[in-house]
Write a structure and sequence with these properties.
Order of helices and strands of chain A: HHHHHH
Oligomer: heterodimer
Largest sheet of chain A: none
Radius of gyration of chain B: 18 Å
Distance between the termini of chain B: 54 Å
Structural class of chain B: mainly alpha
Number of strands of chain A: 0
Radius of gyration of chain A: 32 Å
Largest sheet of chain B: none
Number of strands of chain B: 0
Distance between the termini of chain A: 58 Å
Largest interface: A-B, 30 and 43 residues
Order of helices and strands of chain B: HHHHHHHHH
Shape of chain A: elongated
Chain lengths: 121, 183
C-alpha cells in the first residue's frame, strides 16, 4: 500500500462515525445521580436580596431608638449642610460609642451566611 | 420533548429545574459522549461510562454557564475531556482489555479494505493521551483546530503538531499490522 492510499484510508477510518450506543438505562442512572436544583442567577439574586433585607431590619431592630434618632439627626444636618456647602459639621458629631456594633455585626453575618449558602450550592 | 431544540430544553432546565428536559438532552447526546470517552480511554467501557455520567452531572451543575456560542455537543465534549483528564490524573484508568476487541469486532464491517476500525483501535494504543484526544476530537467529532485547541486548553500550533505526529504514528502501526496480516 502506498503512502497516499494509506493516508486516505486512515482519514476515512478516523472520520467514520461511531456506531450508536444504546442507552440501556444510562439516562435514568444520570437523572438519579443529579444533585439538587442548581442555583440560577435569579435565585442567587433572590437569596442575597432577601438576606440583605432581613439583615437591615435586624440591624435596625437591635439598635436602640436613641441611637437611630441620633443618626437621623446627623444625616438630616449633613443633608442640610450640603446646600450650605458645609459638610464638616455633621461628620464631626459622630462618636464611636454611638455606633450600633451589634446590629452591624449581625447584618454582616447574615449577608456573609447568604454568600456562603449561594456559593456552596 | 423530541420536538424541542437544544436551546429550548436548556431554557426549561434553567427556568424551572425541568429534569425531564435535561433527561431529553442526556438521551440525545449520551451516545456521542460515551463514544468519545470510549475512544479516549482506549475502549474501556466502564471508565468511559463513569466519565460520561460525571460529564452530564457537571453539565447540569454548570448549565447556566453555557452561553450558546458553541454547539451544545461541543460544550459537552469539552466537559467530557476535562472529566477524562481528571480521571487519569486520579489514577482511575485501567489497562486496555483485549476482550473488548473481540466483542467489538463482531459489528465491524471487514470490507474489502485491508484496514478496519479494529486495526485502527489497536493502532490508537500507540498514541499518548494528548495525541489520541487531538485526533479523536478533530476527526471523529469533526471539530476545527481552534475548537480542539479550546477544548484541550493548548495553543493552536501544539494541536496541529499533535495531530500530525499522531497520524504518523498511526500510519506506521497500521503498516506493521498490514504486514503481519499479509504474512
Amino acid at each position: 500500500m502506498n503512502e497516499k492510499d494509506l493516508d486516505s484510508m486512515l482519514e476515512n477510518l478516523l472520520r467514520k462515525p461511531d456506531p450508536y450506543i444504546d442507552d440501556r438505562g444510562f439516562t435514568d442512572k444520570v437523572l438519579k445521580a443529579l444533585p439538587s436544583r442548581p442555583v440560577t442567577l435569579r435565585m442567587r439574586v433572590f437569596i442575597l436580596s432577601f438576606c440583605a433585607i432581613v439583615a437591615s431590619i435586624t440591624a435596625v431592630a437591635l439598635t436602640p431608638i436613641s441611637v437611630i434618632n441620633h443618626y437621623y439627626n446627623l444625616f438630616s444636618t449633613f443633608i442640610m449642610n450640603l446646600y450650605s456647602h458645609d459638610t464638616t459639621g455633621a461628620l464631626n458629631n459622630i462618636h464611636i460609642g454611638t455606633i450600633p456594633v451589634a446590629g452591624i455585626a449581625v447584618a454582616l453575618l447574615l449577608v456573609w451566611g447568604a454568600v456562603i449558602v449561594v456559593r456552596s450550592r | 420533548m423530541d420536538q424541542f431544540s437544544d436551546s429550548a430544553l436548556i431554557a426549561r432546565v434553567l427556568a424551572g429545574d425541568d429534569r425531564n428536559a435535561f433527561g431529553e438532552l442526556v438521551r440525545r447526546y449520551q451516545s456521542d459522549v460515551r463514544a468519545l470517552l470510549r475512544r479516549l480511554s482506549n475502549g474501556n467501557t466502564d471508565t468511559a461510562d463513569d466519565c460520561a455520567q460525571e460529564t452530564f452531572i457537571r453539565a447540569y451543575r454548570h448549565l447556566s454557564a453555557y452561553k450558546g456560542d458553541a454547539k451544545f455537543g461541543t460544550w459537552l465534549y469539552r466537559i467530557a475531556y476535562n472529566v477524562f483528564l481528571s480521571s487519569i490524573k486520579g489514577g482511575a484508568r485501567e489497562e486496555y482489555r483485549d476482550d473488548l476487541d473481540e466483542r467489538q469486532s463482531g459489528d465491524q464491517d471487514r470490507s474489502s479494505t485491508l484496514l478496519t476500525r479494529l486495526d485502527l483501535q489497536k493502532a490508537m494504543r500507540e498514541l499518548n493521551d494528548n495525541e489520541r484526544a487531538a485526533i479523536v476530537l478533530f476527526y471523529s467529532k469533526e471539530m476545527t483546530h481552534k475548537e480542539v485547541a479550546d477544548t484541550m486548553n493548548a495553543p493552536l500550533g501544539t494541536i496541529k503538531t499533535l495531530i500530525l505526529r499522531g497520524k504518523e504514528k498511526l500510519k506506521k502501526k497500521l503498516l506493521a499490522l498490514e504486514r503481519q496480516t499479509a504474512v
